[in-house]
């Protein structure tokens, strides 16, 4: 293509906005999730393959809880088998103000720290990011842990680790 005076500029190469789109979707889901919370008690893994929220570490693959409401534990799965989600980041609240503030602080931790991990993942998956934080001051005194879980969407399952752990 000729270049120079009198010739139009060459077209710009197409922009790749995949990371931006993923970040926008994750951000919208996290900010829109209003029923986020978890009460954390002593951490134990039971023989039925469930782990207390406080015991879940980044890279741990999980299935969705069977009940709604406050989440105390999640079923754990091998990451190379079909599973509903993965803990992608674990952080800590720095102070207790109230339940609403804890939820917002948990969401902020997850958006800030888990979103880049998901964007860097080689797994081809569409996920929703949800934060699980202590639901009350008594729980906060036992554990300040916030888990950021990426859940597969649309009834699909994840078949590999998002974090590579």
UniProtKB/TrEMBL annotation:
It comes from the Bacteria. The chain crosses the membrane at residues 20-41. Keywords: Membrane, Transmembrane, Transmembrane helix. This is Regulator of septum formation. It comes from Nocardia neocaledoniensis.
